[in-house]
């Protein structure tokens, strides 16, 4: 019986499509959802792990979870 807010945003680094800034978009949607629910999940599709980490730090303590699909850029640091 609890309302859950789900936000889906797309990263900009290495993306062919020119999408809106995910940080500004999430900020705007959080303002809208703040009075409606305490449970908010953000799905973030991005190519780089750095961009994903930045959004996760930006949202730390402000949403219930930040999740995202796989990354196409290898993280083969070895």
Please provide a written account of the structure:
- This protein has 78 residues and is an alpha/beta fold.
- Helix content is 29%, strand content 22%.
- A three-stranded parallel beta sheet has the order 1-2-3, with helices on one face.
Task: Briefly summarize what is shown.
This protein is α/β, with parallel strands linked by helices and 78 residues long. The chain has two helices and three strands. The mean pLDDT is 90.
Number of helices: 2
Number of strands: 3
Q: Which residues sit in consecutive blocks of at least 5 with pLDDT less than 50?
A: none
- For the largest sheet, list the strands in their spatial order: 1-2-3
**What composes the largest sheet?**
3 strands, parallel
Topology:
Blueprint: E1 4-10, H1 22-33, E2 39-45, H2 49-59, E3 65-67
Parallel strand pairs: 1-2, 2-3
Label this structure with key terms.
78 residues; alpha/beta; three-stranded parallel sheet; 2 helices; 3 strands; 29% helix
């Amino acid at each position: 019986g609890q309302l859950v807010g789900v936000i889906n945003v797309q990263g900009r680094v290495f993306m062919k499509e020119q999408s809106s800034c995910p940080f500004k978009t999430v900020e705007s949607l959080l303002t809208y959802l703040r009075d409606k629910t305490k449970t908010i999940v953000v799905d973030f599709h991005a190519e780089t792990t750095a961009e994903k980490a930045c959004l996760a730090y930006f949202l730390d303590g402000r949403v219930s979870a930040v999740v995202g699909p796989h990354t196409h850029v290898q993280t083969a640091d070895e």
